[in-house]
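Just wondering, does anyone understand what follows?

——
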Amino acid sequence: MWRRRQGRLRPVVCGVEELRCRRREREAELRKARREQQLISKRLLRDDVPEEAGEGCAAAVLGEAEVQQFLWLAQRGTEEKEREKALVSLRRGLQHLETQQIFIRLEGSMRTLVGLLTGSRALLQLEAARCLHELSHSEQSAVAEACLPATSYLLTYLSGHSSDFIELCLYTLGNLIVESEAVRRQLLPQGIVPALATCIQSPHVAVLEALGYALSQLLQAKEAPERIIPQVNNALLIAHGALSTLGLLLLELAGAVQRPENAGLELLACPVLRCLSNLLTEAAAEAVAEHMQLRDERVVVALFVLLQFFFQKQPGLLPEGLWLLNNLTAHSPSFCTSLLSLDLIEPLLQLLPVSNVVSVLVLTVLCNVAEKGPAYCQRLWPGPLLHSLVNILAFSDTEVVGQSLELLHLLFLYQPKATEAFLQQSGLQALERHREEAQLCARVHALQQTALHG
């Protein structure tokens, strides 16, 4: 997900300012790559759809004749149950790309589906919307773009009364938003921004999460600053207290996930964490301290409560929390101090085995702390960090190993005693395992020189 620049680690002769400059450049690259990856992501609501009893078999690819038959039955069947069953069969078939391609080639197929979507039969409306959702999730842009005749109706239904239907429409729109600028250009004059705004007051957590997804996709578009949110920018949001408001919401969410009666509120965590992370990339360190209006310890504790919850229940959300922690610690010594004073380094290291993505982010946060100077490195070393770094060098993922090498470089730079301790733990032998990897040879050589002459 995040790219690394090659040859980052050099002998200790490089200056501290040069090292910091490189880290800032890399942070910018990471943020750009992450946003681009988020922009092309799609979500699929399928597990919550109840399947009919006795039909546990996998969905089959439909031929042209079968697609035509199901469309005909859905439109002209004599009984509503028969029409609904035809749409269910069509929706299952649309899980396959081959069926999707057949569907969009058939003349009048989308017109029929839109007609069912706008009809007066609620069950048929719901199944038609599910068919559109399957199409919006397609890996081929042409298939998803075929849904454009339905977008104005999907926007209209956002002001409806069924939370399940609104949630489905939001995720479908969110999937369509990422297709191309042409798609977004059509949605804007149709009123997608005010339509999304109507969902903000929904009391349903699932709707709010779906809204966060669709809005996040829309606002991350490259043309967003000029065409989607003209005269509104992150600096203005910060000036109006957005950081403070989101920080308070983060504290509330951390408390909510610990209470069983509020099960489900953690679903709001993802959009809150993303918004905070994005705003912090625009704010200077002094602006964060000025506008956050919260004690650093409270924010860090709340974030670690959420990280622990994600670790146990939803590990897929760990990168969101770690990215926020990265942005908090990147330019703020006080947040780094909070990590150390609250003894949160070891809980952070416990996340390393989750995935390579999580490992890279954990190591990046530790680099942020180490970069602050000798006093911080002295608090980091040795502790549990030494053993973890030696183990990490046995990883096969070059991005994880590369980030651990960068952390070692900072420790050797600011804490000379780390060199001897590392050698005693067979750290140099661990580095030798990566000699055959061309992109790490330069870093291995630099560390050897540092270890021998530091």
In short: Residues 391 and 430 are 8 Å apart (CA to CA). The chain is about 70% helix and 0% strand. The radius of gyration is 26 Å. The chain has a mean pLDDT of 77.
